[in-house]
Amino acid sequence: MLRWHLLSLRLWAPAAAAIELLAGVGMVFGIGLLIPHISTRAAVYGTTGSAVVTTLLLGLILGPQLVAEQKMNGTYEFVLTMPVPRSAAALAWYTVTLVIGLPAAAATLAAGMLRYGITLSPAPQLVVAVLLSVFTATMLGYAVANAVSQPMVTIILSELFIFLAFGYAPINFPPSQMPAWLVGINRGLPFLPMATTVRDGLTHRVVSDVAISYVVLCCWAVGSVLLALLALGRRR
Amino acid sequence: MSATALAPRHGAARWWSSYRHMLRFELASQRQWLPFMLIIQILLSAGMAVLYGFYLPAIPPQLAAFIVTGTPALALIPIGLMSLPNVIVNRRIAGNYDFVRSLPVPRGTEVAATATVFTLLAIPGMVIALALASWRYGITLHISPLIVPAVLLTSLMATSVGAALGHGISNPMLINLVGNLLTFAVLLFTPVVFPPAQYPAWLVHLHEGLPFYNMAVVLRDALSTGLVAHVGRSYAILLGWTAAGLGVSSWIVSRRG
């Protein structure tokens, strides 16, 4: 399935990698334009947050849109008839999102460090945080794409996800800049925990509530996998 | 068939009659999606107006005035550049794109009818976003009659370029990609919501010839006093882009398959 994904994406994989890179690095520089005299704290949040958003793009936007396209042009049923376990197909897609997303996220971090003169200190837990965050985002996208029957709704939902991640979850800016009730909602949703765990792996004493964030993320990951399995196992 | 359903054969009367038929056709074929798109459009427009406040903890009044008067452009741009191309591409996938092209109406009426529907779709979101933003940032607007031509021209510009994209690019993934990239570029790298002084001079010069900054200028001019200059030039540039968008989409639509 990994080979199948790579082959079917052969035209798109280089383009997707380039777009990821542009989006991540562009976001880091763009935040500097929005905030003219940016503080070190805001720069750390902007840089690490942009890297987080970059790793989510593929699983959360491109993934559902690919499935939506398959549904519209009729190849979706063909893919489902392939004699491979559903879990193998899902894990193959997860691997693709990692391979394409991680270099872009690394470039985003490097661009932020150069642009704002900040220092990040990667810790071993970063590996776990990134793997879990990308897994959750990819499975969430996968679940929505397979569970929603209307491709148009899938596309709109994927756009909505990224809009919420960019503007309504404290990923690119500190939670203190958002109303407390909105931060409270975000604590139970997946995007803030993704940012918290990844940021914890990149910085010292910038974030709190790390353990609970891991728990929330695990719940979302399991929930998304279950939803995807339910949608894929349904008879049509 | 009743006599009233027969279209006049020549000139402006035929165009107008065909336009009305195409408008009814557009409304009927989109009726399933229109309420959904309207709600999404209102949420996104209002959402964009508010989110800048999260990025900037302390906003001086001058900047707040820019953010508030930038919201109508933010509401109008995505509906033309993202929703409209997607609708055209979906029509292509569903297989009724060629059917629409085969209808016995002047080609421009299809583009004009689509532009009308999408302009009407954008207006509620724009008004709500503007009201919400002026309340959120505590800014009083000075609305002049110029708001009518500014909104119409801006919307026509966005929908004509969106129609050109939708008719010109047949791959749905590519359409989505271009739409997303344009929205990203508008949100972060175009002086739509923030004063040009915050951007590098070369970027501002580049945007003076591109449509998005000029859309924001004409709308801002109709909503405030003393925030913008060279408004006439912005109208001229927008007219140029609108003509180009309409020309390209009409040319693509009228080509033989």
Keywords for this structure?
heterodimer, A: 236 residues, mainly alpha, 10 helices, B: 257 residues
Concise synopsis of the structure shown:
With 236 residues, chain A is an all-alpha fold. Chain A has helices at residues 2-8, 12-34, 40-73, 76-80, 86-116, 125-147, 151-167, 180-188, 191-202, 210-233. Chain A is built from 10 helices and no strands.
Task: Describe the protein.
The complex is a heterodimer of chains A (236) and B (257). Chain A has helices at 2-8, 12-34, 40-73, 76-80, 86-116, 125-147, 151-167, 180-188, 191-202, 210-233. By secondary structure, chain A is an all-alpha fold. Chain A is built from ten helices and no strands. Chain A has one domain (2-233). The mean pLDDT of chain A is 87. With 257 residues, chain B is mostly helical. Chain B has one domain. Chain B is built from ten helices and no strands. The longest helix of chain B has 34 residues, at 61-94. The mean pLDDT of chain B is 85. Chains A and B meet through helix 2, helix 3 and helix 7 of A and helix 2, helix 3 and helix 7 of B.
Cα-to-Cα separation, first versus last residue of chain B: 30 Å
Unreliable segments of 5+ consecutive residues of chain B:
none
What is the strand content of chain A? Answer: under 5%
Q: What is the number of helices of chain A?
A: 10
Instruction: Report the count of strand segments of chain A.
Output: 0
**Helicity of chain A, in percent?**
over 70%
Q: Helicity of chain B, in percent?
A: over 70%
